[in-house]
Amino acid sequence: MGFLSRERVLSMPTRKLESVVSLNDIRVACKACSLKEICLPVGIDKDDLDHLDAIIDRKRPLARGEHLFHVGDNFQSIYAVRSGSLKTYTTSEDGQEQVMGFQLPGELVGLDAIAENCHPLAAKALETTSVCEIPFDELEKLSGQIGGLQHQLLRVMSQEIRDDEQNMVILGQKSAEQRLAAFLIGLSNRFRRRGFSANQFNLSMSRSDIGNYLGLALETVSRLFTRFQNEGLLSVDRKHIELLDRDQLYTFSGAHCAADEAPKAQTEN
Amino acid sequence: MGFLSRERVLSMPTRKLESVVSLNDIRVACKACSLKEICLPVGIDKDDLDHLDAIIDRKRPLARGEHLFHVGDNFQSIYAVRSGSLKTYTTSEDGQEQVMGFQLPGELVGLDAIAENCHPLAAKALETTSVCEIPFDELEKLSGQIGGLQHQLLRVMSQEIRDDEQNMVILGQKSAEQRLAAFLIGLSNRFRRRGFSANQFNLSMSRSDIGNYLGLALETVSRLFTRFQNEGLLSVDRKHIELLDRDQLYTFSGAHCAADEAPKAQTEN
DNA sequence: TTTAAATATTGATATAGATCAATGAATTTG
DNA sequence: CAAATTCATTGATCTATATCAATATTTAAA
Question: Hey, which of A3, A34, A152, A216 has its CA 20 to 30 A from B141?
């Protein structure tokens, strides 16, 4: 159990190691992990849940800079971030890196590998990060048996497509200012959805990662942070961000997608 | 049957109308529609195929400019293009349009609507276009029963995520020249995969749509077409494109993803 | 600690591609 | 078939943001 205490995971049940699993423990752990959307879909009974849980593997945490998988790696599993954060990226033949996304606790990585059975992106820990590994063939088998799970899986993938579309809009026609504003509002919403503060958070990624992700030079990102701060929209202290005028920032972002601002109520019990 | 003759669909079986369905006819029609990836997955037996086919509805063709669905429309079905082409797009509150993609025969639309049960994009016919309507709840039910279908569906969605990621790379860090080259190579590959000519095709979308999709001004697109032509890379005649130096164009595109260039062999029987 | 390496900020300058503007095809419409 | 409309091309200019460069700060290492 040693490594668990080093993580920010609340009541981690001991698993695999001791072979006996308490369903209650699992529920608690998964709730802390905020992965309930996938792991605890409404309407799955205890028995099904047991099956589902049985296939999920809690891996040892990754250190900052460690890879969860590399480009071209054989696809076996999808992963859910439990704590910490990841970035996914590719590298073009000229060595140029393109950051494709950042994964926060409760978010999934690897769905883009299903199509070709190998990972098109690499996933790297931005800080100490722990994940759940979900073997895909087993998940698939299970979701054939559990109707709700299948639907949930399709929903999650659909949402990812949607998010990517949003990103295309941002990259395709937003100004630098709008991009950064949208990025911050987006992050804020994601934190809020996971039960973290929406107005105050730490960026685990570098300015360069942000710039790369948003299609901007890191200098531009830096300048914008300063400007936003001067305009009283937020306060920056290195990695720490506090949103002071969320509404204004939202307006700046040239918002279009109502879904971004008003996250619908989760079935929270 | 009247409207069918107006389309470019080969041997369309009469269906629903006459209530008796010949399996052979279906196979032929779906092959022509080049949708076999979804509709004719390997390993689905005749019985299953029958079930699958029974839920698919061939709709009357759309005229140029007609919408298949609008933003916010309730999500019922996904659609497969049989002939013609579509564009999907959103409109931001300031009236600015963002083109998200183009769908060619054999490609699907609407997968991004599963998550929220409503369409985040509108889909509009770029020319006379016919589609198959696949009611999603029925597809979902079926894919719970037919293992191969479930996997196929996940694969298709995964591929869409992947394609969107590719687009992010293009929008995020490619030059105008690279974007257009990548766009043309991409189109060419998609045509080839569907059995059309890879080196000669008609653009059903306007320069403005292309520019919008690529995050460029239409003037830039126009200038690039002229330049590519002057450089002997292709020949343009209004909508008609002939790729003269595909390799060079491919190099220009700053290619990264091997998958783009070498489409793997389809299980063709 | 001190040094070294990585990361961030800020300024000066250059440029790719946007925007504005005019003209020239194509296509559609009456 | 003429008129109108849409779409495409080409040119001139302007601007947002990249790039180059120097310095400052933070983090990691020794």
Answer: A34
- The predicted-structure confidence for A111-157, as pLDDT tens digits, reads as follows 999 999 999 999 999 999 988 888 898 888 888 777 677 888 898 89
Out of B159, B168, B256, closest to residue A167 by CB: B168
Which fold, A6-157?
Answer: Jelly Rolls (2.60.120)
Q: How far apart (Å, rounded) are the C-alpha atoms in residues B26 and B31? A: 8
A174-267 to CATH, choices 3.30.1380.10, 1.10.10.10, 3.40.50.12780, 3.30.40.230: 1.10.10.10
Any idea of the CA torsion for B30, B35, B38, B41, to the nearest 10 degrees? 60
pLDDT digits (tens, 9 = 90+) for A11-61: 233 333 332 333 344 444 555 444 555 554 444 556 665 666 666 666 778
- A103 at interface of B, judged by CB pairs closer than 8 A: no
Q: What is the pTM of this model?
A: 0.83
In contact, A130 and B131? CB cutoff 8 Å: no
Domain ranges for chain A:
6-157, 174-267
Residues 45-64 of B with CB under 7 A from strand D: none
Predicted confidence at residue A133, as pLDDT, reads: 87
* Closest C-alpha to A161, from B166, B163, B112: B112
Min CA distance, B239 vs chain A (Å)? 23
